[in-house]
Design goal:
Elements: E1 4-13, E2 20-28, E3 35-36, E4 38-39, E5 55-56, E6 58-67, H1 76-98, H2 103-116, E7 136-142, E8 147-154, H3 160-171, E9 175-177, H4 178-187, H5 202-217, H6 230-233, E10 237-242, E11 248-254, E12 275-277, E13 282-288, H7 290-295, H8 298-309, H9 313-327, E14 331-337, E15 341-343, E16 350-356, E17 362-367
Parallel strand pairs: 2-5, 8-9
Antiparallel strand pairs: 1-2, 3-15, 4-6, 6-10, 6-16, 7-8, 7-11, 10-11, 12-13, 13-14, 14-15, 16-17
């Protein structure tokens, strides 16, 4: 089924007019649940529908984690802060795409913004392990050449996603962890934080105490009841993009799960589980119970269902999420395909998410 109707075709002249490309933004079919995130790219000059022009469009989606997010538990002020965070991330990535920048740059830029925002469980706002440390995982993947970089169990890196990119581009490896990854960062000019104070947030610290108390009390009969929200337990940030050259990219970053054992690594940095991109199919960034997302090889499975079964992005994404649910896991994912169709399914009560609509407008949503 065609997901788009063409509603805007423009001629974009590059300096010196050596060549021109047609930028078009596609309209999402409202009836089709698969939402189109393809957005109008920068277009100057006159509208001109000419044959044999290359078709170029961009698409951009971000998430800030999925879980039990109830309207009743959210203050208006807090909600505004989350929305602003997602909008900042959309701005950072979309500005790059509009200027004909790469999907890799766009996803990295957006994830960095979310890593710097204490509201989200990545970078600055990372949750605590069972021994009171912060250990971060991240990954980035380039759908054009199937290149990928991933890092795990970082303790002193402000923006893990940028180290993941460095691993992809300069290490000759795909995945590095802990001290070795941080030594590699230092060698390549990334400044290490001297201690973990930067990652301390009251909210995450209190969440750790709550989870530990609940664990101690056993949560059973007679035990004190603690209300542990998903917000207390986990979260992740991610971005997927389609750039004007038709290249897809995905990036994901997380502090993992509250009270996780030191050394535990989730799905986010596992290529094919929490993060995957392939120009032939789609780009995916996942969030949720990492152990289940690893077992269901979520991100690659979405791509594989499209590649080998000919499923649409929406069908593939939903089908994989159903598989996660069957295993007992919850969460969500964001995905974009090479036509710019987007899918943002989740099986929790909410997922912090945002995308750029076909008119270049930012759409930010939290609840179901
Ligand atoms: N998937 C992340 C992890 O397991 C957590 C999350 O996305 O909520 O590390």
């Amino acid at each position: 089924m065609s997901q788009f109707k063409l509603h805007d075709v423009r001629l974009f002249c590059v300096p010196n007019c050596f060549f021109a490309v047609v930028l078009f933004s596609a309209g999402a079919l409202a009836a089709a649940q698969e939402q189109s995130g393809s957005a109008k790219a920068v277009s100057k000059g006159e509208t001109n529908d000419q044959p044999n022009m290359e078709i170029r469009k961009v698409g951009f989606v971000v998430h800030g984690g999925a879980g039990t997010i109830e309207r009743s538990e959210m203050t208006p002020e807090r909600e505004r802060e989350y929305r602003a965070g997602l909008e900042h991330a959309l701005t950072a990535g979309y500005e790059i795409l509009k200027r004909a920048g790469s999907s890799l740059d766009a996803t990295e830029a957006a994830v960095r913004v979310l890593e710097d925002d204490p509201h989200f469980n990545a970078g600055k706002g990372s949750v605590f392990t069972n021994v009171g440390t912060n250990e971060m995982d991240a990954a980035i993947m380039d759908g054009k050449a199937l290149r990928a970089g991933a890092v795990a169990s970082l303790k002193h890196i402000k923006n893990p996603v940028s180290l993941a990119r460095l691993v992809m581009e300069r290490s000759g490896h795909v995945m590095m962890d802990g001290e070795g990854a941080e030594a590699f960062a230092k060698e390549n000019g990334i400044q290490l934080l001297t201690d973990q104070k930067y990652f301390f947030t009251k909210q995450r610290w209190e969440a750790l105490q709550k989870v530990k108390s609940a664990e101690k009390s056993g949560g059973g009969a007679g035990g004190k009841k603690y209300i542990i929200t998903d917000q207390d337990r986990h979260g992740t940030v991610g971005a997927v993009a389609l750039d004007q050259n038709g290249n897809l990219a995905a990036a994901t970053s997380t502090g993992g799960t509250t009270n996780k054992r030191a050394g535990r690594v989730g799905d986010s940095p596992v290529i094919g589980s929490g993060t995957y991109a392939n120009n032939a199919t789609c780009a995916v960034s996942a969030t949720g119970d990492g152990e289940y997302f690893i077992r269901a090889t979520v991100a690659h499975e979405v791509s594989a269902l499209m590649e080998y079964r000919g499923m649409s992005l929406k069908e593939a994404a939903q089908s994989v999420l159903d598989k996660v649910a069957k295993l007992g896991g919850s969460g969500g994912l964001i995905a974009i395909d090479r036509q710019g169709n987007i899918a943002l399914p989740f099986n929790t009560s909410g997922m912090y998410r945002g995308y750029v609509d076909p008119n270049g407008k930012f759409v930010v949503e939290i609840y179901k």
